[in-house]
Amino acid sequence: MTLKRGLIILDLLREKHSLSMSQIMEELSLNKTTVYKLLFTLEKMQYIKKVEKYYYLNPSIFFDDRIHIIRDIQWSSLNTPYRLAEVSGEKVFVGYLKTKSL
Fold first, then answer.
1. What burial letters (b/e) apply to 2-36, b meaning 16+ CB within 10 Å?
2. Would strands 48-51 and 54-57 be described as parallel, antiparallel, or unpaired?
3. Average pLDDT across the chain, whole number
4. Running DSSP on this structure, what letter comes out for residue 91?
5. How far, CA to CA in Å, does 100 sit from each of 55, 96, 97?
6. What is the rounded distance in angstroms from the CA atom of residue 19 to the CA atom of residue 41?
7. What does the DSSP assignment read for 30-54?
8. What share of the chain is helix, strand, coil (3-state, %, to 5)?
9. What would you report as the CA-atom Rg of the chain, rounded to the nearest whole angstrom?
10. Quick one: DSSP state of residue 89?
């Protein structure tokens, strides 16, 4: 049952991109202790990473070829646009400038 729950968390993170512990608790209807132990184990085994209060799949292990990777961007910094899209229900696009002008 523990393995299944851990795999469900990985699937959830793949689908949602990032979640806090309380969001995972709510999604899976599990108590805080159980979710903490699962997340601790997944993080210790380097399947997931934690930035501030959010958990993400480790990009070194889980490569999603639908995403174009730019090595200079710290992808965890995209949490804010992701949350904006989630809250507003709108699409949010992020770009970067190669030069100093538009």
1. eeeebeebbebbeeebbbebebbbeeeebeeeebe
2. antiparallel
3. 82
4. -
5. 33, 10, 7
6. 16
7. --HHHHHHHHHHHHHTTSEEEETTE
8. 50, 10, 40
9. 15
10. -
pLDDT of residue 66: 45
Place of tokens 């995403």: 67
Sign of the C-alpha dihedral computed for residues 21, 2, 75 and 51 taken in this order: positive
Q: What are phi and psi of 89, to 5 degrees?
A: 75, 10
Terminal-to-terminal C-alpha distance of the chain: 53
- The 10 Å Cβ neighbour count of residue 43 is 14
Residue 71 or 31, more confident: 31
Strand order in the sheet with 48-51: 18-20, 54-57, 48-51
Paired tokens of 25 = 């608790």
